[in-house]
Design a protein that fits this description.
Helix 3 packs antiparallel against helix 4. The protein is mostly helical and 80 residues long. It is built from four helices and two strands, in the order H-E-E-H-H-H.
Length: 80
């Protein structure tokens, strides 16, 4: 995690505060470091699953992007 953070320009020891959303389905500690985020919460090297795209759609501000993320999550032909 240290090497990844350095490569990406992040301070691995920086403390973060995560604000939970009512619609979020995944649990995440509210206070954690960048290191903890990349080692315990995010799977940055794995293949994203449908739930990832569904959750990501909650943050999309552009309606076309939101629709595309939702179609990927639903497994529709538009999302392939």
């Amino acid at each position: 995690a240290e090497d990844f953070c350095a490569m990406m320009g992040y301070d691995a020891g920086q403390q973060l505060q995560v604000v939970p959303m009512e619609t979020a389905r995944n649990w995440c500690p509210q206070d954690l470091s960048v290191r903890q985020l990349f080692t315990h919460v995010l799977d940055i090297f794995g293949k994203p699953n449908k739930k990832f795209f569904d959750t990501l759609s909650l943050f999309a501000k552009d309606e076309k992007e939101k629709a595309l993320l939702e179609s990927i999550a639903a497994g529709s032909d538009d999302g392939k």
